[in-house]
Amino acid sequence: MKNWTNGMRLFRGGPFGRAAPVGAVAGAALVLLGLAGVAGAGQGPWDRTETREPCSSFEPLRQPFFGDSHFHTVLSADAVINGTVNTPSDGYSFAKGGALPYSSGNAVPEAQLRRPLDWAAATDHAEFLGETSICQDPTHPGYASDACVQVRVEIGQQFDGPRDSASFLTYFFPTIAPGTPRFGWCGTEGAECLDRSSIVWQSIQDDAELHYDRSAACSFTNFVGYEWSANTSFKNLHRVVLFRNEHVPSLPTSYFEEPHEIGLWHALEAGCDQAGNGCQSLAVPHNSNISGGSMFSALREDGTSYSAEDAALRGRKERLVEVVQHKGDSECHPSFSNDELCGFEEAGVGSQLPTDEPLEENYVRWGLNKGLQEHRRIGVNPMAFGFIGATDTHM
Asked: What tens digit of pLDDT does each residue of 282-328 get?
């Protein structure tokens, strides 16, 4: 399983049946059996859910496409602190082959891909979409708040680690403890920040549409998406949420609204998949390697085991797992396997607390076995994952 690089390889069919771009690339990548379908003059075996021209090149068997399902921009608070100034539109331009400035303070002024991607998804954190925008808007009263001032002071500074940044901790803490309120300057029940979030969310959709090639050339495909960023008790439980088409919920579901993954899945079902408007969604867990043994636990919020309904819900929403990215490999660990390749790009910790030891329960191979155990117990496998690699770049 280890002969891959970061990226995704797309084949026809599957749950998302979205028009995939023309082109192939040599090299190894993760094989995704069916996030997007190749649309064309010969209609493929899926339902068309959007309006577009048929692709001029259509391969009914297999045609690989490569992209990045997980990158952050100036809309994410932690990316801003890193000095990132690029928007989702900039990120898509880069994915399509354009040159892009690095974050401030980097010795190398620009980066450019050797070979453009076929598709991409900007996935900024749902948490603080509005707050991050307000902190960069001098016309808003929140701009002068202590939290916003601290962010701007720290932009582009060099830190030994994220936790050396006061701003990072300020924005990180509310995703550790469920029920932590939004900043006071967000107004009653966070209304002002939610209102700004809706504006930012619309801009995310607009940037995706701007770069999506709906012509017969089918040269580039976008997926609208975001990241749900649970860090409960310093355990990484993040999910990247991707949508099949332009039909998306009015706001992304964040940790503030749903601090448990089952709540996220139910929110996606209610606000998207069962909304009756063509919306379809996937939730993709990532960095189980630092999840404190919780990513594949098959437990409800109250600590009881999954019911068959819970397992089926997870099976519908989590068809994929992000098995590798810049925070390390999540497939396996040499401490728990005699496979010498399990030493590849390990983070070496068990949670987001750097003192925690690695845990076998953190790794995808363990999760696949857990899914089989659940199938024997309740007749449903909640963890029959496909595999995906992505960057999770914040630069």
From this structure: 999 999 999 999 999 999 999 999 999 999 999 999 999 999 999 99
Contact in structure between 286 and 322 (CB atoms under 8 Å): yes
Amino acid type, 373 = Q
Q: Nearest CA to 327 among 360, 361, 352?
A: 352
pTM: 0.89
The number of CA neighbours under 13 Å toward the Cβ of 192 is 16
β-strands 320-325, 386-389: how paired?
parallel
Segment 155-170 mean pLDDT: 78
Q: Using alpha carbons only, give the angle 308, 226, 213 rounded to the nearest 5 degrees.
A: 115
Burial of 221 (0-12, 13-18, 19+ CB in 10 A): buried
Nearest to 228 by CA among 245, 246, 241: 241
Taking the C-alpha atoms of residue 365 and residue 334, their distance in angstroms, rounded to an integer, is 12
Tokens 């401490």 -> residue: 335
Q: Using 50, 70 and 90 to split pLDDT, how confident is the model at 11?
A: very low
β strands within 190-311, DSSP E: 221-222, 225-228, 239-243, 281-285
